[in-house]
Amino acid sequence: RIIRSFMDIFQRNLTGIETYNLNGCDGDIYQLANWQAFGAGEAYCALLEGIIGIQWDIGGFRYVPCEIPGEMTLGNFKFRKGRWNISLKGEGAFTEKLLIDGNALSGSMKVPGKYLNDKASHNLAIVRSRKPFDRPVLLAATDAEIGELRSTEQSLRFTVLNEAHTSLKIYSPVEPAVEINRREVKVEWDKDTSIFWCDLVIEKDSEVNVSRLN
């Protein structure tokens, strides 16, 4: 599980997760040494993602779905100024529900920014499922902080609160139509996995809209 997590990132970005700079640095194509962060930090990331499926970047943290069975808990996980108690149960490569402080989070595996910038203690409950998602779901948005999010079985709409060089990874049960700030964007949708990617530099306060392709 740990090695697979590492290789998934390496194969997509052609750089190791230990750089903490998955999408490169605009204007710095050589990935100079000042970006490297080898050692304890890398091991800590690998353990958290490998065991309980939590992966983070400067835009927030997310759950990475995995099929390893068993119930797990992570207490007092510190992110920015807040602390999180995270529980994981059930089986399957999908999720039945994510609950933040008892409130359901639909359409996203990444925790929205409104929960990340306070000094409060939060609870995240993850219930896994073998049943595929019935709607578009944001799986990853590297370095992007997610703002307002609206999810239905037909569409997904969310804002990005910061400027970011990001890779959006989104599950869509059917071939999607994607717009960013009301402009059509071509994406790589794989019908076998129902996943598409979109790599771009996204502006602050941008709106992403995913709907069914007409």
Largest sheet: 5 strands, mixed
Radius of gyration: 17 Å
Strand order of the largest sheet: 3-4-7-5-6
Helix proportion? 10-25%
Average of the residue pLDDT scores:
85
Number of helices: 2
Secondary-structure-derived class: mainly beta
Find the count of extended strands (DSSP E, 2+ residues). 16
Shape: globular
The secondary-structure element order is: HHEEEEEEEEEEEEEEEE
Tell me what portion of residues adopts beta-strand conformation: 35-45%
Query: What distance lies between the first and last C-alpha atoms, to the nearest angstrom?
Result: 38 Å
Polypeptide structure, described:
With 214 residues, the protein is mainly beta. The protein contains two helices and 16 strands. A five-stranded mixed sheet has the order 3-4-7-5-6, with no helix packed on it. A five-stranded antiparallel sheet has the order 9-10-16-12-13, with no helix packed on it. α1 crosses α2. The longest helix is centred in the N-terminal third of the chain and has 13 residues, at 40-52. The chain starts with a helix and ends with a strand. The mean pLDDT is 85.
What is the strand and helix layout of this fold?
Blueprint: H1 2-13, H2 40-52, E1 54-57, E2 60-63, E3 72-79, E4 82-89, E5 94-100, E6 103-105, E7 121-129, E8 137-141, E9 146-151, E10 155-160, E11 164-171, E12 176-180, E13 183-185, E14 188-190, E15 195-202, E16 206-212
Parallel strand pairs: 4-7
Antiparallel strand pairs: 1-2, 3-4, 5-6, 5-7, 8-11, 9-10, 10-16, 11-15, 12-13, 12-16, 14-15
Helix pairs in contact: 1-2
